[in-house]
Amino acid sequence: MNARKYPSQSEIKTEWKYRNGHLWWREKKQGRQFYSPAGTKNGNKIYKIVRYKGTGWAVHRLIYIYHYGEIKRTMCVDHIDQNKYNNDIKNLRLVTHAENLWNSCKKKGYWKNGNKFTSEIYYNKNRKIIGHFKTKKEAQKAHDEAKAKYHIIKDRKPVTTTI
């Protein structure tokens, strides 16, 4: 995570309007139209990026700040459905780095170990062997059940009250 500070919620709301998972420029300036969508897929970067005051910013983080305010440095904004371009606010949630890794689709949670399959899970910074299974399917099922039990992501959206 870099040390630069993201724009404030008021700066973001002044510069952009949020609609349907996208930020839209509020002003027409050189190289862009009035109310045109903000952000592009930046080369081989994973996330959609928008340039603001000479710096590139991740659109999904700006959208989260737009709705809920400042994000602590230790937190990540996770795409619930794992689609890095689906920036609808309903698809974004605030998570720890470990929780963000839990939602990664890259780790299958088991491996071939001799003539069996070993299933594992990481929880509270520890690796836990779930067991050894005859088939991939059994190992995957055990891993999925352990994920459902241990990888519970808390809802961290600010609570709003009405008077």
List keywords for this structure.
alpha+beta; Homing Intron 3 (I-Ppo) Encoded Endonuclease, Chain A; 2 domains; 23% helix
Task: Explain what you see.
- It is a single chain.
- The chain has two domains: 9-96, Homing Intron 3 (I-Ppo) Encoded Endonuclease, Chain A (Alpha-Beta Complex), CATH 3.90.75.20; 107-150.
- Helix content is 23%, strand content 30%.
- Helix 1 (9-15) crosses helix 2.
- The chain is α+β, with helices and mostly antiparallel strands.
- Strands 3-4-5 form a three-stranded antiparallel beta sheet. Strands 8-9-10 form a three-stranded antiparallel beta sheet, covered by helices on one side.
List the helices and strands and how they pair.
Blueprint: H1 9-15, E1 16-19, E2 22-25, E3 40-41, E4 48-52, E5 55-58, H2 59-68, E6 75-79, E7 92-96, H3 97-102, E8 110-113, E9 116-123, E10 126-133, H4 136-150
Antiparallel strand pairs: 1-2, 3-4, 4-5, 6-7, 8-9, 9-10
Helix pairs in contact: 1-2
Write a compact overview of the structure shown.
With 163 residues, the chain is of the alpha+beta class.
Kindly estimate the percentage of residues that lie in beta strands according to DSSP.
25-35%
Q: What is the overall pLDDT average?
A: 84
CATH architectural type of the largest domain: Alpha-Beta Complex
What letter string, H or E per element, gives the SSE order? Answer: HEEEEEHEEHEEEH
* Low-pLDDT residue intervals, each spanning 5 or more residues: none
- Biggest β-sheet: count, sense, barrel? 3 strands, antiparallel
Structural class: alpha+beta
Q: Kindly report the spatial arrangement of strands forming the biggest sheet.
A: 3-4-5
Structural Rg: 20 Å
Number of domains: 2
Using the alpha-carbon principal axes, give the shape. elongated
CATH class of the largest domain: Alpha Beta
**What's the β-strand tally?**
10
How many DSSP H or I helices?
4
CATH topology (level 3) name of the largest domain: Homing Intron 3 (I-Ppo) Encoded Endonuclease, Chain A
Distance between the termini: 38 Å
Query: In percent, how helical is the residue content?
Result: 10-25%
